[in-house]
């Protein structure tokens, strides 16, 4: 450039103090040196990160980093404007081009000084100057598509090891400019797809790439937010973790919240209770139903303390609908660090939380075979730049998979939403959650079938337990408690009626020194009225005994008629929960530190009545009484009244470190300390001669009083794991954990409470695994060992004189297991997914003497029942699912086949149920990008098999002596059902 042009430009830029005039003189003498030193100044590398800082302060920092001096007029370039810079070892010339030129700031180099000027002002004064170009040679362009060939919008295309890259546009296209000649590795990533690396050589020419990504069905490259510490990809984590995406949920179309858990290996799931309470076993831990070792969360906070069986049941506290974006499930590992008293697994249901662009989904579903009509909706978007929202829910009415004889069997829904207020400095947010649930669900219980030794249900006099209900059609009864004077109206049609309201506030902020603070508070109030009829006995009807219906009409008699004895249970549960978790996280060099504190207050007031009834043995039976004018409550005689009244408060401290030892090796450590206080009132039903409570008196309808109790226990858990990245696409992990299972309020509330029956319950876990994700293949595989000591168990013993009696017992188990998830895109439209669990779960110590119960000892003598060495009941040795997804243009097909191995109905191994296969299939068609239709079927082949036997009596029954045709109790798979839906999404 000529000297006079430099001077003219400098005059324009300086405008014009005496000091600046002196600098201008320097420029005029140095102009001839431009070609000598200009390129060296521009080639200096700069690493700088600055958010919303003025141009002047950014220039000052560059001067310190490079020793290059800038000359400019602050007024001329408006140097107080705020901009952001994020450069990592970027050449100075690139940085000035990328971050100053868009703000009308040009530059010229003279010697080792850089002159800054206003580009627009230079043009106005006739100075059209070529900017100094770096040595650039090539351009990479291309298109990123999905498995169907459709464009992927928003995919990241980066040059490996640099911050240089681009994002795909609405057509899936990208451009990376100004590349020097050489070889580059292009890394393409997008959430939900397996990342891909492409090597490109540029030799003075441009390159065009067509890159197709495969879906990451195992989401091994997705970022995990559940699990403490800093978010990381599943490939880098040292836990057994499964993600269930929104697409997975749509394809699986679960019948209920429990049914969806079948997608997770390591869990044995029974959802044969319909929409009522389900059962989930974790890696062979012993239990008699419910969610004993499994914690369920919604957006990172527990819905219910872990450890309860049928009532309350956590699957009645949340429902799966369109508001759920995805689910993360951690088995074993650091589950015990995430949530108190949860050694087995944690399942976190993550909700949509709004976005910059408006979105929404609306779906109408009909159950062709069960009279289901359901509407789901969810929508979200931005109210302003910093305020985003999401709101959704569902409503449905449903005749039920099995018709109970009244309509509807299931009815209700929920409304759920959140709104996020982002801070203007982009360092955090405040998010407010709200939910209202009002839902009635049918609870399908056991029924009777003629035994033939096959483990498959057969019919008796036209009654088919698979398709028919034994719930009596005399559903309503009024009851006045003669001891308290309170009156109630109970109704089986109300089923499990849950009303729940909750509100939560989340505060999330990152400080200037890097601390990430997250505090989440939730208040939740729930009422559950549970009304259900459970059969517990059957006998041939005697011709000499005249029975009547409750309206006084004589009940007809026929040979081989049976009379069912049932318990009509009526429960009024009220609970209030207050949960608060405060977490701190910070990255300190190679350490991701985290620690936190939490409180979970669970206040419970639970009143239960059990009524004895008799009924016919047929579909939708009538109640039977022995007098034409029954004096009891509509044929129901009250047997017991029980309560659970008390408060549980858990205080928790937890923390850990995730240490990145090298690019390949990560080590993480987590510890947790939980202090639990249970303060309540324990009922008693009798008094001793001295007037003190008799805690051994049997339960009756009359509670004589209460004894106060206040018990505090402290437990700890610790877990250490390591992840070694074998390659960019594969890793191995190892983890060892010591956890615990803490008694809950139900254990302490028993009227016959004995402190000796509450023992320490340590849990030990070890696991090793392998993860792989590349191109069309994703693999997760692990082997594990788990053991629990002194688990509290109840052995139910049928007696002739005193009915069903209980023996308090303790069982210890150990389980060896292997789990796997494999996803493979066989061809472009077809993806297969295979999951499975092989486990050997056995009792290492399980025995109970009859001397603990006088009624049992009177019938069976003084003996010890021992099940040591036997398999854990109702847990299959093999549970596996193979599913396939076929996507051809607008058509989608999903088919899954689930194999469940043989199980024993009781720890005595007296009755083995056979293995079975159950299928699910669905097909969908997208008319447009927004409108789609789907049809699917559960239990496609209509498999008929028992899922459980008589959990109260099978351990005392010698099936070699049971005559074929004997009526036995059990529960079966749900019958085949068909559904269809019409959905609109935008």
TrEMBL record:
It comes from Pedobacter ureilyticus. Keywords: Cell outer membrane, Ion transport, Iron, Iron transport, Membrane, Receptor, Signal, TonB box, Transmembrane, Transmembrane beta strand, Transmembrane helix, Transport. It comes from the Bacteria. This is TonB-dependent receptor. PROSITE patterns: TONB_DEPENDENT_REC_3. It is a multi-pass membrane protein. Gene3D superfamilies: Carboxypeptidase-like, regulatory domain (2.60.40.1120), TonB-dependent receptor, beta-barrel domain (2.40.170.20), TonB-dependent receptor, plug domain (2.170.130.10). Belongs to the TonB-dependent receptor family. It holds the Pfam family TonB_dep_Rec_b-barrel. InterPro entries: Beta-barrel_TonB (IPR000531), Beta-barrel_TonB_sf (IPR036942), CarboxyPept-like_regulatory (IPR008969), Plug_dom (IPR012910), Plug_dom_sf (IPR037066), TonB-dep_rcpt-like (IPR039426). The chain crosses the membrane at residues 12-34.
């Amino acid at each position: 450039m000529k000297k006079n042009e430099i001077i003219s430009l400098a005059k324009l830029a300086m405008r014009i103090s005496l000091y600046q005039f002196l600098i201008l003189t320097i420029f005029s003498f140095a102009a001839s040196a431009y070609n000598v030193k200009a390129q060296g100044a521009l080639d200096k590398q700069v690493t700088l990160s600055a958010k919303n800082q003025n141009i002047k302060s950014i220039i000052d920092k560059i001067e310190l980093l490079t020793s290059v001096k800038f000359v400019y007029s602050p007024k001329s370039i408006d140097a107080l404007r705020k901009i952001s810079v994020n450069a990592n070892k970027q050449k100075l010339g690139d940085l000035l081009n990328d971050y100053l030129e868009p703000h009308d700031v040009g530059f010229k180099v003279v010697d080792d000084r850089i002159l800054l000027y206003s580009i627009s002002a230079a043009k106005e004064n006739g100075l059209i100057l070529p900017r100094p170009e770096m040595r650039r040679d090539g351009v990479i362009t291309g298109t990123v598509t999905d498995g169907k060939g459709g464009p992927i919008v928003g995919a990241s295309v980066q040059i490996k090891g640099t911050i240089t890259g681009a994002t795909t546009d609405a057509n899936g296209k990208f451009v990376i400019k100004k590349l020097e000649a050489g070889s580059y590795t292009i890394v393409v990533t997008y959430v939900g797809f397996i990342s891909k690396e492409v090597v490109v050589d540029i030799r003075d020419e441009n390159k065009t790439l067509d890159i197709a990504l495969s879906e990451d069905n195992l989401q091994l490259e997705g970022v995990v937010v559940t699990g403490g510490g800093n978010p990381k990809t599943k490939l880098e984590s040292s836990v057994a973790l499964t993600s269930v995406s929104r697409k997975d949920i749509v394809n699986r179309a679960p019948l209920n919240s429990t049914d969806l858990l079948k997608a997770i290996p390591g869990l044995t799931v029974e959802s044969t209770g319909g929409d009522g309470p389900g059962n989930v076993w974790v890696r062979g831990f012993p239990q008699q139903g419910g969610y004993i070792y499994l914690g369920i969360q919604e957006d990172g906070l527990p819905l219910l303390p872990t450890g309860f069986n049928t009532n309350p049941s956590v699957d009645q506290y949340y429902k799966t609908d369109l508001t759920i974006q995805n689910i993360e499930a951690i088995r074993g590992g650091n589950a015990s660090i995430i949530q108190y008293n949860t050694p087995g697994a944690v399942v976190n249901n993550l909700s949509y939380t709004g976005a910059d662009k408006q979105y929404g989904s609306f779906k109408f579903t009909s159950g062709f075979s069960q009279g289901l009509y359901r509407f789901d909706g969810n929508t979200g978007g931005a109210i302003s730049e910093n305020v985003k929202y999401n709101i959704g829910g569902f409503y449905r009415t449903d005749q039920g998979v099995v018709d109970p004889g009244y309509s509807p069997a299931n009815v209700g829904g929920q409304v759920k939403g959140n709104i996020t207020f982002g801070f203007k400095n982009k360092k955090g947010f405040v998010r407010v959650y709200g939910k209202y649930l009002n839902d009635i669900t049918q609870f399908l219980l056991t029924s009777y079938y003629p035994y033939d030794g096959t483990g498959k249900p057969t019919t008796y006099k036209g009654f088919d337990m698979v398709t028919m209900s034994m719930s009596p059609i005399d559903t309503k009864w009024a009851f006045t408690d003669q001891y308290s004077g309170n009156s109630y109206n109970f109704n089986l049609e109300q089923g499990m009626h849950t009303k729940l309201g909750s509100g939560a506030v989340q505060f999330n902020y990152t400080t200037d020194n890097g601390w990430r603070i997250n505090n989440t508070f939730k208040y939740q109030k729930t009422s559950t009225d549970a009304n259900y009829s459970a059969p517990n006995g059957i006998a041939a009807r005697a011709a000499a005994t005249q029975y009547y219906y409750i309206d006084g009409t004589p009940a007809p008699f026929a040979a081989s008629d049976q009379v069912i004895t049932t318990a009509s249970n009526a429960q009024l549960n009220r609970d209030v929960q207050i949960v608060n978790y405060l977490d701190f996280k910070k990255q300190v060099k190679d350490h991701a530190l985290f620690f936190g504190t939490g409180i979970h207050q669970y206040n419970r007031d639970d009143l239960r009545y059990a009524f004895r009834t008799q009924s016919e043995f047929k579909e939708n039976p009538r109640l039977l009484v022995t007098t034409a004018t029954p004096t009891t409550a509509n044929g129901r005689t009250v047997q017991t009244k029980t309560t659970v009244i008390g408060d549980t408060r858990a205080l928790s401290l937890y923390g850990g470190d995730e240490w990145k030892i090298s690019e390949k090796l990560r080590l993480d450590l987590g510890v947790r300390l939980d202090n639990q206080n249970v303060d309540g009132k324990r009922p008693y039903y009798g008094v001793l001669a001295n007037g003190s409570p008799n805690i051994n008196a049997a339960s009756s309808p009359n509670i004589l009083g209460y004894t106060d109790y206040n018990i505090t226990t402290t437990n700890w858990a610790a877990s250490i794991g390591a992840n070694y990245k074998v390659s960019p696409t594969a890793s191995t992990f190892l983890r060892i954990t010591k956890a615990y299972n803490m008694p809950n309020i139900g254990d302490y509330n028993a009227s016959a409470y004995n402190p000796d029956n509450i023992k320490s319950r340590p849990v030990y876990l070890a696991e090793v695994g392998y993860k792989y994700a590349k191109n069309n293949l994703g693999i997760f595989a692990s082997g594990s060992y788990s053991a629990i000591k002194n688990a509290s168990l109840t052995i139910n013993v049928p007696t002739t004189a005193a009915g069903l009696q209980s023996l308090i017992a303790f069982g210890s188990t150990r389980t060896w297991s292997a789990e796997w998830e494999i996803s493979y895109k066989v061809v472009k439209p077809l993806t297969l997914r295979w999951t499975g669990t092989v486990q050997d779960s056995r009792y290492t110590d399980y025995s109970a003497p009859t001397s603990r119960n006088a009624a049992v000892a009177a019938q069976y003598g003084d003996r010890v029942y021992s099940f040591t060495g036997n398999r854990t009941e109702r847990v299959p040795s093999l549970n596996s699912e193979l599913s396939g997804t076929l996507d051809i243009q607008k058509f989608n097909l999903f088919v899954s086949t689930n194999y469940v191995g043989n199980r024993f109905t009781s720890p005595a191994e007296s009755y083995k149920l056979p293995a079975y296969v159950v299928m699910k299939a669905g097909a969908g068609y997208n008319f447009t990008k927004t409108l789609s239709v789907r049809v699917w079927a559960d239990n496609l082949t209509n498999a008929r098999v028992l899922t459980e036997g008589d959990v109260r009596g099978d351990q005392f029954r010698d099936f070699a002596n049971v005559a074929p045709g004997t009526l036995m109790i059990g529960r079966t798979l749900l019958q085949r059902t068909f559904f269809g839906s019409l959905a609109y999404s935008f």
